[in-house]
What we know:
361 residues, alpha/beta, elongated
Amino acid sequence: xxxxxxxPVDIFDNFDHPVINPNAPIVPQRAQIEIxxxxxxxxxxxxEVQALDKINLxxxxxxxxxxxxxxxxxxxxxxxxxxxxxxxxxxxxFIDGKNILAMSPQELxxxxxxxxxxxxxxxxxxxxxxxxxxxxxxxxxxxxAREANRRVKELLEIVGLEEKASAYPSQLSGGxxxxxxIARALASNPDMLLCDEATSALDPMTTxxxxxxxxxxxxxxxITVVLITHEMAVIRQICNKVAILDFGKLVxxxxxxxxxxHTKSAAGRRLFGILPQExxxxxxxxxxxxxxxxxxxxxxxxxxxxxxxxxVNILSADMRQLSQKVYGQMLIQRPEDIQEQKRIxxxxxxxxxxxxxxxxx
Length: 361
């Protein structure tokens, strides 16, 4: 057998097909948006208001990230700090590893073009047609008219409003106005869409159609969506990650599934419908059982009663759809007897269900 002398083609082929070491450490992906120790204090007559208190969050490219909390939780302040519409009192905000608080005015303008912003009240120019509203950011950026017109046509097709190009905002429904706002936000080819209560002014059916549009944009264009809301139904429908704010503090964050299954905070339990909006004392101890859609079809409680010899008082039960999955949750009264409680918890855990103790008013 003659020895083969490597040729330049062989050498370059080796570079084109590198050997992958299966034991090499996995390098974590850098977050597209990273928030570190972010705080915001507003000065008001007679004192100060702490709107945000040392928030830490990482949002990966392609996420549909929901930030939820009741009124006054700090949600809108947080999203305004992401694009420097509001300046934090302390902390850092990194976009693809670059601190926006240290950017020059020119760098900040370029970064903001990568962040489309969608507001609750649409913020359309009432004296301009739909096409002119969508073209407005392109005109500001100096895009040639022919290219801008082509881009406007594409965007109106994406949001399903190509036949409304010559209409004025006053002639549109609320959902159509928000679709125009979304098209305008996409005009500069952003990497991220920041939505501040984008569906709060819409009826439920229109809300669903707008959320489906945002989900489609995320899926087909790979655009990261950060969605501020006070409605858990919005989070459940399209988000894969969620952060819960309560009086300026981050109380829970993670995948929607994990936060629902292992809700730790009172704010999270209220938002997921585990506790009522107002806490009333004294508390009533209960066991919260969470199961997936397949387990919901099984007579688990009936078997529990038979096998454990326990009396089960069901306080409430419902089904929820989270991230395209169906989950059920049930609240049962916690037995006073410790041994009986242990038998119930052990049995449910053996069946693969999530069980935790909660306190109901």
